[in-house]
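Below is a filled-in request sheet from our internal design queue. Each sheet records the structural input a requester submitted and the sequence that came back. We keep these sheets so that new team members can see what a complete request looks like end to end.

REQUESTER: design group, bay 2
PRIORITY: normal
MODE: inverse folding
CHAIN LENGTH: 318
BACKBONE (tokenized):
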């Protein structure tokens, strides 16, 4: 039986090693590049109906058109979110787009870590110890068992976060357009008003863009915390910053950020960052920022590679 070809774009070194090890077991011949898909490297897709793309590259309509003209019929994105691809336009060109499921525990574990860092003032503590100031912080930390946690989005990751929170003894409220678990679901307004921590796990789309905005933040408890490990634009940064600076919000822990493209995953240690929002947030002692890394575990990578190949094989066998 002839091997099936898959062009794999935006493939990091660790991914590349795993694809080369795994693909032959499935009878698949991968064509791998570390470059994101673009009109300049469309030729790598020639002869392949299936391609795999990373979540870091914005796939424009012109790229989709070029892929269609190259014979591509299926795109597997190595992410849970689709917000970097115009799925409707792809479908109009006869291209199916599908995401890849990977261990929800990667993001769920990281979310709990960020919660604990936020409520225990970890950024301030580490900053002080780094300059050998070992005094106790003026503000005492909080315990999760004493807090109400509002979980927005209860898919695989949101559900895994709630499983962990039950172990801490937290009161949990949930909001989702389509309830999927046995959690205590409430309207969004009620969740915002009652929660000490709000954590975001819903997909980004036209309906959820700036789901948390000026109005939402006004509804939140004074001193509440926001955690975002989903997508940056779920949260209106222009509304978030003054709420943090004024003390309306007690803190934020953000693994994703509006405008992160072109900044996250690059070394800016010797470059100037143009994003005024990012710079303002980083100056705040009650804000933790990490570069979209919650998903980045060995287990999740293994899942992503294997499920990417499986997705393409299922499409080829239809």
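RETURNED SEQUENCE:
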């Amino acid at each position: 039986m002839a091997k099936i070809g898959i062009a794999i774009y935006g493939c990091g070194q660790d991914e590349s090693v795993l694809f080369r090890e795994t693909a032959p077991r499935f009878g698949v011949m991968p064509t791998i590049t570390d470059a994101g898909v673009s009109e300049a490297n469309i030729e790598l897709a020639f002869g392949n109906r299936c391609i795999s793309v990373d979540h870091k590259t914005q796939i424009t309509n012109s790229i989709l058109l070029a892929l269609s003209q190259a014979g591509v019929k299926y795109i597997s994105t190595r992410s849970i979110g689709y917000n970097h691809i115009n799925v409707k336009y792809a479908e109009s060109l006869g291209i199916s787009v599908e995401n890849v499921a990977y261990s929800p525990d990667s993001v769920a574990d990281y979310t709990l870590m960020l919660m604990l860092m936020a409520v225990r003032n970890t950024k301030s503590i580490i900053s002080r110890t780094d300059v050998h100031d070992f005094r106790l912080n003026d503000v005492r930390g909080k315990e999760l068992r004493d807090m109400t946690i509002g979980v927005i989005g209860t898919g695989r990751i949101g559900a895994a976060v709630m499983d962990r929170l039950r172990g801490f003894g937290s009161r949990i409220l949930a909001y989702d357009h389509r309830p999927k678990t046995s959690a205590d679901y409430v309207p969004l307004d009620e969740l915002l008003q009652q929660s000490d921590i709000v954590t975001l796990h819903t997909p980004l789309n036209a309906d959820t863009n700036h789901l948390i905005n000026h109005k939402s933040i006004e509804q939140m408890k004074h001193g509440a915390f926001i955690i975002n490990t989903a997508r940056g634009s779920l949260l209106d940064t222009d509304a978030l910053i003054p709420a943090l600076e004024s003390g309306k919000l007690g803190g934020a822990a953000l693994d994703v950020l509006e405008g992160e493209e072109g900044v996250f995953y690059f070394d800016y240690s010797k470059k100037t960052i143009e994003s005024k929002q990012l710079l303002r947030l980083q100056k705040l002692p009650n804000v933790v920022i990490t570069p979209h890394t919650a998903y980045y575990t060995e287990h999740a990578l293994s899942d992503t590679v294997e499920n990417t190949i499986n997705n393409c094989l299922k499409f080829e066998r239809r």
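SHEET NOTES:
- The CA atoms of residues 223 and 250 lie 4 Å apart.
- The chain has two domains: 4-103+298-316, 104-289.
FILED BY: M.R.
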